[in-house]
Batch of 2 targets.
Target 1
Amino acid sequence: MSLQGKKIIVGLSGGIAAYKTLTLVRLLVKAGAQVRCVCTPSALQFVTPLSLSTLSGYPLYSDMFSSRNESATEHISYADWGDLLVVAPATANTLGKFANGIADNALSTLFNAFNKTVLLVPAMNTQMYRHPATQENLQKLRAWGAEIMPAATGSLACGTEGEGRMPEAEAIFERINELLQKSCASLQEKKILITAGPTVEAIDPVRYISNHSTGLMGCCIADELAKRGAAVYLVHGPMQASPKAKMFRSIAVTSAQEMFKAATELWADMDMAVLSAAVADYTPLNPSKEKIKKHDESLQLRLSKTQDILAALGKNKQAKQLLVGFALETENELSNAGEKLHKKNADLIVLNSLKDSGAGFAQATNRVTFLEKDGTISPMPLKSKQEVAVDLADRMEYLYGKL
Ligand code: CTP
């Protein structure tokens, strides 16, 4: 297996399993990867700077304030450099820091700055592994998009048998390989348009009509597709969320009309589009140029229908273009979403119902159902929005392959 050209950061925290990480570094280098190692202070109780720098062929980074560091912000330059960060062993302490945003050493600070693929390999005593604090931290980190390699079962350094062993270096190497194949290659050279967030429709210079969309779901999708190598064109309204990955282009718009213009201009050049924006269906007919004064007892606003972006893209869809829409429903979910799929000529509709607890606006989780053109309906369990984005990206790759 070749990892030629891949840049991998190997992080070690202080656990006895750190000796296995030396073999991992050796395997990665042998496969052609460029490797840099980063240690917490306690990892250096188990392995030496000399062994890590000799095996990786690059000086170890373990002291944020060392005058030997190439730059004063080494954690940022490492985060920009690496394609993947693997932390093995990941101790309970280090996982706790990661899950709580604590940045007090070279590794935890780098973790905070790293926005690409992360693989965490926990290793610790069984009780510590099963402790609710560790499990909750792992769940949180998984929800944020980190890959967690389950601990193996076997004899532990404390003399007991059980869950908590670090998997062997060869197994970690395999997992890194799989993740890099998925994260770097599968959507290379694909151009994907994503709409996200709400639109804002002016009533007058002070007031507007909008909705509760935060844009989080769209940003998670943008991140996942960018991770897989796609050039993502993100057309977004004023949203609270922001993507972590680098977008190919990010186009900020305000109104439904502006979003329509930006999206329709891009579409002909795109391979796929995911329209996750909560676009206003109606907009004030003649927004007032001046602030509306409260002279009258009642006020009537006349609204006109906005143009439907999804329907417009569906109308001009070419044979090798994949179009994904969303449907937010509060009743007759499946039949309404099915109708949108056909009427707007989409290939896939992601249905979410506001009735589901844990789904919808400003939630970290979502429960969706995929409806496809051939009639396939796939209800998914409640997942983090990052995990929903992974499922959607997998489905899009599959459907695009069939076009
Ligand atoms: N959509 C769009 N342009 C609009 C309205 C909606 O592109 N002017 C897209 C949304 O981004 C979503 C899909 O159409 O991908 C469905 O949006 P939704 O609000 O669920 O449905 P509507 O078509 O607006 O219909 P209704 O509000 O009557 O349910």
Target 2
Amino acid sequence: MSRLHLAIQKKGRLADQSRDLLKQAGIKVQDTKTGLTARATNFPLDLMLVRDDDIPTFVGDGVCELGIVGLNVLEEYRLGQDEDDVEIIARLGFGRCKLMIACPESEAFDMSALEGKRIATSYPRMTRRFLAESGISAETVTMQGAVELAPRLGIADYVCDLVSSGQTLEANGLKPVETVLESESVLVRTLKPIDGAMAELVDALKARTDGVIATSESKYIVLNAPENALEDITRILPGAEAPTVMPLLGRQGQVAVQAVCQESVFWETLEQLKGAGARDILVMPIEKMML
Ligand code: ATP
Ligand code: ZN
């Protein structure tokens, strides 16, 4: 029987969350002795544990039908290909970060400052595209790591690097000023032809991961409200279509409302609901979901 191949990061920021996603999708994984592969015991799936930079190549070549990788790595890879050989089939919502231009903290930055300067980055293709789109001519200096040290070392004037909290930049006297790409992890699929049985496995795995992503953001909300507030309340409920409305015994004009909210429910949302007349609001997690 055919087995699906999924490339994930072996070690690093995406490794644990990639494995967590599979776990939540009900897939049990057993590592092999080599440490290069792992095997699912209850789903026809083998994992390839590699450096994130190699994931697009593995998937593009069709060695792995699927991969989990940051959009930043994927886009940089794609810009180097004549023809796309990988497609994104799901956004996974973890590994969020931004690829940003950063300048010395004391500088009052504007885009024209980049003209004729040197920008250190691990993402030269994306940086060049951004500069070209902004009508700036500047030089990129490609570095594999420690990009944030480049200005201090006199290698470059600016950097274009990944930022999540901004702490690393700050520690090096830099501040982020322009966003080149907003990134998160994505599930990618090869564009090389795969046979019918394999395509079915891809769909089955995707249906499960879609379910995991949907449930992680979704909540089940139950509340009581006056009937005449229903329109307002339905509008406030985030990502809820057609809530269930039931009469409350012995309370004329009052109803119970139940809905699946497909977006995050914040305290602010509850306050708004209450403001609209809702009472006894319950927010419950959803364990599994198949859409
Ligand atoms: P590898 O050994 O696999 O090449 P790496 O050092 O290139 O690992 P990590 O630092 O583990 O990569 O980051 C992997 C991915 O995590 C990044 O490509 C990016 O998509 C995401 N990420 C999220 N936040 C950050 C951040 N603050 N800095 C860097 N990467 C981040
Ligand atoms: Zn890497």
